[in-house]
Amino acid sequence: MRGLVATEMIAQPTKETSTALAACHQAIHATGTALLGRAQQHGNAPARIGIADLLMLTNAIAWASEQTPPTLSSSTASSL
Question: Which residues of 5-42 are buried (b: 16+ CB within 10 A; e: fewer)?
Fold first, then answer.
């Protein structure tokens, strides 16, 4: 795991990790919640989706893109 996925995994705030990285995670969570709320108000995102769902989806996409073989063309990768 690299990139966004690894960062999110170590950024989860716990009793033991009250660090700048945890603060970054909290800022991403707060900002994402506000943006998602606006999208939901304008009908651009389903009301049943929460920020945890959106972050899991984002992490899944990031992880999948990190697994893309270097030989895969950029046009093929972007169409996935």
Answer: bebbeebeeeeeeeeeebeebeebeeebeeebeeeeee
